[in-house]
Design a protein that fits this description.
A hairpin with an 8-residue loop joins strand 12 and strand 13. This protein is 31% helix and 20% strand. The longest helix has 49 residues. Helix 1 packs across helix 2 and helix 5 runs antiparallel to helix 6. It has 497 residues and is of the alpha/beta class. It contains eleven helices and 17 strands. It has two domains: 106 residues, Pantoate--beta-alanine Ligase, Chain: A,domain 2 (2-Layer Sandwich); 359 residues, Rossmann fold, CATH 3.40.50. It has a six-stranded mixed beta sheet, sandwiched between helices. A three-stranded antiparallel beta sheet has the order 1-2-3, covered by helices on one side.
């Protein structure tokens, strides 16, 4: 009987031991799986935390995002700690890079309840883990059209013809200030419209970036492209604001070279009237066109290529460009200090005329053939300002630059076209649509209703004046702020999706 009792005791001890071993094996396997789940969850939680790395979000917001993600994965979160370069703790060497990157380190302790090991007093086990996540930083170039047409919406009255003087006011027939003369008189006091509204919307847009992790360069373009701020110095909102505020509408009357394009010469102080440069055979129009789109895109690319952070460094290259006209001017080229303006014969006879002249003085210079679908190689005699701008778009596409374009006003799709000359009324809009469509990264022609080739004459485009892909149409100044907000949201979505 005593031996039987000993056997029972030994058997009970063996059972307990076997249960402990079994429990250790099962709960150990559970812990092993839980640790792997935790590490994967922390990897994703660090990305979720990095998603909050934008303007207006605090370190507590970032930490809460990481906690919420871990809880959603079924973990009982004990403690959690988030580090960024704003509060790096002992990880400054890892998190504080030059230039700044949106790096977030998440450390967490979670409680894993035991099942079988409770019989030996182990109710739960604490696991710890850490992960570093990164959201893409933005290197953005903001391009604003400041050609003289950006003052055309300014109501002004001409009160003197010699010297030329215009003042703000509602004109009546016969005393309206000619449009090319308005920039000279509306720039003082910042009264030029629509540019004043463009500037205000651009300032609000710039404020949505998260400095110094995001960086903004600023370029304007008229006859020439002008850099106002590069990326190396664009990591502070106040500097970006100052750059935007420093842009004025181009004034063709300011120099004697371009004075005939405005009908007045203000280079000596008072604005003296001069004969207008009128279209005609043998007249060189090149001082007058003032939409150097190719120059602006080239300058933007050079800034990104030389100062931008690479994609493998967690950066996204973006261009946001606003314009109200088609490309009609270029940088100086060999043999032509005033830029490119090829010559051709629209009528098939007589002397070759510049591409801007359509045989009627009512139609102003453009220095491009007016047909979007007709594209020429750089060695072609009809290679024009638009062709050069299209070549720059190819460069941007190959460099994986995302371009958002804004077409302002009905000149985008309602140009005055002489019947029968083949010029596209929507030349500017087609260009801006193509630029946004071909660089959006999805290889889809979203701005076409039918067809997949933007240069196919048979392709059917989306209705004029309609936004598509990353192109936005702004019929007037009242829509600009909403459009810039939508672009900011799309940039954010592209970064964090």
């Amino acid at each position: 009987m005593r031996r039987h009792g000993q056997i029972m005791v030994l058997f009970a001890m063996m059972v307990v031991g076997l249960l402990a071993i079994t429990g250790l094996a099962l709960d150990g396997a559970r812990l092993y799986m839980a640790r792997h789940r935790l590490q994967h969850a922390l990897d994703s939680a660090s990305l979720a935390a990095a998603n909050q790395f934008r303007i207006g979000r605090t370190l507590q917001d970032i930490q809460q995002a990481a906690r919420d993600f871990l809880v959603a994965q079924g973990f009982q979160v004990g403690t959690i700690r988030v580090y960024t370069c704003d509060d790096p703790g002992p990880y400054a060497g890892e998190l504080c890079t030059t230039p700044r990157r949106k790096l977030v380190r998440v450390e967490a302790q979670v409680e894993v309840p035991m099942t079988f090991m409770r019989v030996v007093g182990w109710q739960r086990v604490t696991l710890t883990g850490a992960a570093t996540g990164e959201a893409a930083s933005v290197d953005l170039v903001l391009i604003l059209d400041n050609s003289e047409s950006m003052a055309y919406d300014t109501p002004m009255v001409r009160v003197s013809g010699n010297p030329v003087i215009c003042i703000p006011g509602s004109p009546s027939p016969g005393n309206e200030c000619p449009k090319p003369q308005r920039p000279h008189f509306c720039n003082p006091g910042d009264r030029c419209e629509p540019f004043r509204s463009v500037r205000q919307a651009a300032l609000q847009f710039a404020a949505q970036m998260y400095y110094p992790y995001d960086r903004v360069a600023v370029i304007s373009f008229d006859r020439q492209a002008t850099p106002h701020l590069d990326l190396a110095n664009g990591d502070d909102l106040s500097d970006v604001r100052n750059a935007i505020m420093g842009i004025q509408v181009y004034d063709p009357g300011a120099t004697s070279l371009t004075a005939p394009c405005a009908g007045m010469d203000c280079s000596s102080g008072n604005c003296q009237p001069v004969p207008w440069k009128e279209p005609g055979v043998g007249v060189d129009p090149r001082p007058c066109p003032s939409s150097n789109v190719a120059g602006a895109l080239r300058l933007a690319y050079n800034i990104l290529a030389t100062q931008g952070r690479r994609e493998e460094e967690g950066a996204l290259w973006v261009i946001v460009m606003l314009s109200d006209a088609s490309a009609n001017a270029t940088d100086p080229i060999d043999g032509s200090p005033n830029g490119l303006c090829p010559r051709y014969n629209p009528g098939g006879a007589g002397d070759l005329d510049p591409t801007w002249y359509w045989g009627d003085p009512a139609y102003r210079p453009f220095c491009q053939d007016g047909d979007f679908e007709t594209r020429h190689a750089s060695d072609h005699p009809r290679y024009d300002a638009e062709d050069m701008a299209l070549d720059m778009i190819d460069v941007l596409r190959d460099a994986r630059v995302v371009v958002f374009s804004i077409g302002y006003g009905n000149r985008m799709h309602n140009l005055e076209v002489r019947p029968g000359e083949g010029r596209d009324r929507d030349l500017g809009e087609k260009f801006m649509r193509y630029m946004a469509d071909v660089t959006d990264g999805d290889n889809q022609a979203e701005c076409l209703q039918s067809g997949a080739d933007w240069f196919d004459p048979g392709a059917v485009w989306q209705p004029r004046g309609q936004s598509c892909s990353n192109y936005f149409y702004a019929p007037d100044a009242s829509t600009l702020q909403q459009i810039f907000r939508e672009i900011a949201q799309r940039i954010f979505t592209r970064i964090y999706r």
